[in-house]
Specification:
This protein is mostly helical. It has helices at residues 6-10, 12-37, 42-70, 80-101, 121-136, 140-146, 148-155, 158-171, 180-205, 211-234. It binds protoporphyrin IX containing FE (HEM). The site of protoporphyrin IX containing FE (HEM) has 25 residues, from helix 3, helix 4, helix 5 and helix 8.
Amino acid sequence: MPKLFEGAIQDWKYVLSFAAGAAVFWLLQFAYQFYVIIPNQFNLSLIRSFAFSGATLISIALLLGPLARLSPKWNFVMHRRMFGVCGFALIIGHSASVMTFLFNWNIQSIGLNASPFDNPVLFGLWAYWILFAMFLTSTDWAVAKLGTKNWKRLHRLVFIAYTLAVLHFVLVNPSALNNLAGQLLLGLAVLVFALQLLAFAKTVFQKRASLIEMGVGIALILGLGALLYLGFWLK
Ligand code: HEM
């Protein structure tokens, strides 16, 4: 049974340099917002730079699995955990800066009773707690504690969390996406959905998916597709 953070401690140079790279990426996003897009607006630049850098790294984490399945020579799955963990750490910064500068840590002022299509902050809030559970279980210790089957079941929820996050950042303030940071994130989101669908289709056609996996996959595609349709076309 591995100890908590045993893998990260053993591989501390890789973990620290990856985290440093993520911090530099966030700083670049901050400088872009603060000096180019919304000059001298410190609070909003914090909110947006954490949001864009976090959501971008999480999107890259979701690209690596299907990429390796579709083209084995592009196998960077070993970096998936660090992209996911660093991405969510930045999203903690995003939600904390939103709660500090926009909602004054008053949960009621988020407007919890509204429909998420009228108040897309709620989509972010739902995505946040699913991603938080995955963040807490992103260690070898948690995989051993939960058992691989349960761990995989929990981490399959990423598809629901990511769809909720996309609905959140596309609907909450669309004008904030009209720049390089927003377009990069939107482009990656389209790529994530396309590659995940292609990899699922390949698994099905190569008959490497059990009937249950096929059923769950098709139900997820239809359910999340309906949610996106509701969010973008019906609203
Ligand atoms: C507690 C959970 C969350 C809250 C309260 C929250 C709140 C907000 C708010 C108020 C905005 C609009 C900010 C503005 O005026 O520009 C926003 C934007 C955004 N959020 Fe969230 N969010 C949460 C979770 C998430 C999650 C989980 C993600 C992605 C994984 C995310 C990604 C984004 C992105 C990319 C934007 C657009 C950039 C921006 O406008 O800042 N948020 N969020």
